[in-house]
Input
Amino acid sequence: MPCAIIQSIFFGGAGITEKIFYPDSPDEGCVFPDIAYGEHERQRLDLSIPSKRISDSGVILFIHGGGWVSCDKSVHWDDVKYWTSKGFVTADMNYRYASSACHVPDMLEDISAALELIKSKSEENGLKISKALLTGGSAGAHLALMYAYTMTDKAPILPVAAAVCCPPVDLTPADIFIRKKPELEDWRNGVLSFCSGREITGGNINDPDIKEILRSISPIYHIKPGTVPTLIAHGNEDEIVPFSQCIDLHNKLRENGVPTDLIVYDRTGHDMKGDEEAEQRYKELFYQYALRYLD
Output
């Protein structure tokens, strides 16, 4: 349904926001910017609804990376605008950073809360959103996969597909994140401690109890027949997340009969910059996944 023009309103730091038109292309649709889906300052999302839609029942949700402890949804705003222009309801979200008080299950709860708000806001605009394609890069890719692979019975909007870039899918290897960059060991230990809720040092990462916790928050160990179709992209010279992780993920999905595609970005690192042919192929496949699973 067409969106009425309503000015965006902010009251101090409260960020009370109403829907607005895209200023450059008012016929394109409307956006709910920076709306709160919880009480924490990080629990915010942007929701974009195109006027001309391919699907009235699906949403694409971008989850940002940043090692679980940094970055912001704004890095995906251009992606939101692009996929809105292609006719898809699209959103991006912040989540609570990993900390001594916030672990992976808490971040997955944030995704549920964000989807609940997306569902209710869409219903206010005449849409019944029932399907979600979850997407992101790096830590965002990890969270997208963890949610899509483990939360289907609890999700307010059912994950039906995932599209991820450079995803860390197995957090159990002793050299995870530091094989090519040993100087990242302190960071690695810190974020894994936050994600798992257990203190991790270089000496105890192989402890069986810690291994089991890391296994529980590693997407690859949750794959089974019926897991959602998954599009994967990864740079073959990634210096942070080993390229072998995407190969293992792709193979495990295929072994379980799960539809999957893998795009290899040649001679690119963790930022996946420089392979325009692979970038175009990923975008084409992303579009096919969105059409197939959200329409």
User: Anything to note?
Assistant: The beta strands are 20-21, 29-36, 44-50, 58-63, 89-93, 131-137, 158-165, 230-235, 260-265. Residues 20-170+218-294 form a domain with the Rossmann fold fold (CATH 3.40.50.1820).
